[in-house]
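user: Please supply your own:

assistant:
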Amino acid sequence: LANRSNKEHEAAMIDHGIQPVDLVIVNLYPFHNAVKSGQDFKTCIENIDIGGPTIVRAAAKNFKFVTTISSIEQYEEFEKEITKNNGYTSLKFRQKMSEEAFTITGKYDSIISNYFSDLSKNIFSKNKIISYEKIEDLRYGENPHQTAAIYNLQGKNDQIKQLSGRKLSYNNYNDLYSALQLSKSLPSNRGTVILKHSNPCGVSIDTNKLKSYLLALKCDTVSAYGGIVSCNFKISKKLAKEINK
């Protein structure tokens, strides 16, 4: 993994008969899977990769000359790159793979670190490493000219499911979780919350689902326009039509 622009490195390679490395592909031991599946301590420890991260980091550091593939998810992109460039990779691509490599090894180390913190019950350790995975890019940020994305510790968004409508924005998610938090604090199966930009426009409780919504709407019909409606009960077709107005 030598620096080929360094004459001393080149001379050492010639002296020792070392061929330069152009491509490094490493799949790290599945430590996270071992922990997630409830394997015992010994098995988890055996799934801590030592050499893999070392090779990946060394190759990624030398991205000027070396292509580093550190995830199965990169294979397709790598195949397209060498097909487009007749067996070679561009510097831009190698730098991108280097960035991803350091992110992957960083996340890998964070999972191991947090595993040991959990074992020792050291909840508030001096240094805490938190790793997130991007779920999706959002339509826009707090304002239309800003970008935004949503991240999750688990790497998947299984808490909510969008049934229809446009791609959500930062404000939509912010309102959505604020509305859910308030809805959950109300008596179940009869609470309605209407809010906009995280500010409640109306909150109501009634056993009659339609009345519950109409009472919440009556609190502030102007501010409710374009806002978020959260019901802690199943919405009927009749109520859906009313909300759609």
